[in-house]
Amino acid sequence: MPHSIVPPQDPQRLLQDVFGHAQFRPMQREIIDHVLARRSALVVLSTGSGKSLCYQLPALIFDGLTVVVSPLISLMQDQVEALRERGVPAAFYNSTLSGAERMDIARGVRAGRIKLLYIAPEGLVQNRILSLLEEANLSCIAIDEAHCISQWGHDFRPEYRELGAIRRRHPDAVCVALTATATPRVQEDIAQTLGIAPENAFVGSFDRENLFLSVEPRIRMNDQIAAFLRGREGQSGIVYCPTRKQVDALAEKLTTLGFSALPYHAGMESEDRQANQAAFLDGSAPIMVATVAFGMGIDKEDVRFVLHAGLPKSPEAYYQEIGRAGRDGKRADCLWLFGYSDVDMILHFIQEGAPSEREGRLERLNWLLNWAYSSDCRRKTLLEYYGEGREQERCGMCDNCAAAEKPQIDLTIPAQKFMSCIVRTKQLFGEAYIIDVLKGSAKQKILNNKHHELSVYGIGSEFSRAGWQVLSFQLLKRRMIKRDLQHGSLKMTNAGWEVLKGNEPFMGRSILPLPKAKAPQIKGAVSAEYDKELFEKLRVKRKEFADKKSLSAFIVFYDSSLREMASRFPQTEEAFLEISGVGPTKLEQYGDAFLQIIRQHCQERRENESGA
After folding, report:
1. Whose CB among 45, 113, 364, 416 lies 3.0–4.6 Å from 49's, allowing a Cys bridge?
2. For residue range 254-308, what is the model confidence (pLDDT) as tens digits?
3. For the segment 139-174, what is each residue's pLDDT rounded down to a tens digit?
4. To 5 degrees, how large is the angle CA 556–CA 558–CA 560?
5. C-alpha 436: how far from its chain's center?
6. How far is 196 from 147, CA to CA, in rounded Å?
7. What is the pLDDT of residues 355-386, one digit of tens each?
8. What is residue 519's predicted lDDT score, i.e. its pLDDT?
């Protein structure tokens, strides 16, 4: 561990000297001052808004220990390593430690040498930890992912419920509960469990204005994903799949198409998962294809896209997962490829789950389906889910708002064909069957039902199956038809009847076939935002330090810090300190090495220019 700092009492100085930031993000200073006044708080801020600083910085000023309850071992280890790199005396206490290591940490806690102790909720209620905290000078209890406390939340964990008792055992310690995903109902449940007064809640905006939100029907998934990735070569992003098998298959397919993609799921060997995660974090493999096992605590600022290839578990899970994109404030794209077949799997899990949770899970599933099919502003309806209003009807940063500004074509005839087929098959079948009838399929089920004798049989040969699927999605979005949740059958609405009768036209977007997947064309143009050659030199040096210390590369420096160095070319210690993410501790550890590279690169460039 680097030499521990003796911090000043001024939060602004700590922000600069320890955390390397020139200014606080919105609401951070207000929350920190509140906590330093020894008042408990519920903090609900979006992913990437800097919640951790709201307890990490006060922990340096408090005389005693700050205990941080964290649900994932990998998350707490990364945070502790990052703090130690900044000179902060922090430790984690979990099952990965030996008995001797646990005893050493306990001695450090009793002696007051450790300022932040990270521990899992199930570990916190063990007798030896309870006794240790009684002996320690406990100043603060910080509860991360606090939505896990609530039975109304999307990720309820019974062991989190016991944290209320821990809170009552230490009434003099400040309690800070933090989450990025809590509806008003969940916020109220968290506050009641932990005894936090309503006036001590800090709820920021859930609006991530730099994220472009879109939903498309999943038709030919590999083609659609390849088309999405084409033109994004070198950009960092995450593709979420529902199952491990799908993760492996898609990662392999993308690799054959020339994309640099790696898999990540709980079924892999731990070493392989860690290696793939490290490659993603340091940028050597920009695309991670993963189950939702990946992402918690991934603090990578330059993720430019998150693509869902399957149905998210809940609105909260979706919001949390897309929140991993665009944490640097720049535009990032969030695409959900929606396939109704995923609903059967989610319904199965709901029925197999605890009866007490079924109602809430069905409500969240229904919300997701309505949101996918909605033609309203996606941002506005997503914010309303979290109890946040939005004055503007159109955000300009979602597919629905963008489509409203584009010209549409007349799709009345194909829409009438599709809906006529729904009616003539008694509104008992789903999309796939309707398309089979329109395309003139000779499947046995169609013949048994005598639907090959209908007037609509075979009248849809002018469009591909994919085209009819796109049309079906548009009809659902415009509420011309609706889908029965339990059986998946399509039903007519009053608005649909008006189009079918010829009283209203149906305008939509093209339903021509999608392009076939092919290997991407690597672009030769180089962005002028920063010096790419210097950036690569700095990345090599960063990896040397990270490997030597057995750290993830981003803990040494984020990519965004390296890009800033490759853009501003700092050549003095004073200039190096002005780089975002650089404080005195980082300057002391890495300044000489990185400044030498920058100076040498600038000298070589001057010599080349003068020689030319």
Report:
1. 45
2. 998 889 999 999 899 888 888 898 888 878 889 999 998 887 667 788 899 999 9
3. 999 999 999 888 776 678 888 888 888 899 999 999
4. 150
5. 37
6. 14
7. 877 888 888 898 999 999 998 999 999 999 98
8. 39
Task: Give the β-pairing of 409-410 and 507-508.
Answer: antiparallel
Q: What is the H or E stretch that residue 41 is in?
A: strand 41-44
Rounded CA separation 541/600 (Å): 14
Report the candidate in 217, 211, 213 with the shortest Cα–Cα distance to residue 477: 217
Measured distance CA(527)–CA(53) in Å, rounded: 33
The answer to whether residues 175 and 138 touch, using CB atoms and an 8 Å cutoff, is no
Q: What's the burial of 498, exposed, middle or buried (CB within 10 Å: 0-12/13-18/19+)?
A: middle
344: tokens are 């059967």
Please report the DSSP string for 511-540 in residue order: -PPPPPP-PPPPP----SSS-HHHHHHHHH
Instruction: With residue 214 as reference, give the H or E element that holds it.
Output: strand 211-217
547: tokens are: 């490997």
- Look at residues 38, 42, 94, 29 and name the one whose alpha carbon lies nearest to residue 63: 38
Return the residue matching tokens 């000779």.
442
163 is written with which tokens?
């944290």
DSSP string, 106-156: HHHHHHT--SEEEE-HHHHTSHHHHHHHHHS-EEEEEESSGGGG-TTSTT-
Is the Cα dihedral 219, 223, 225, 228 positive or negative?
negative
Cα(195)–Cα(41) distance, rounded to whole angstroms?
A: 10
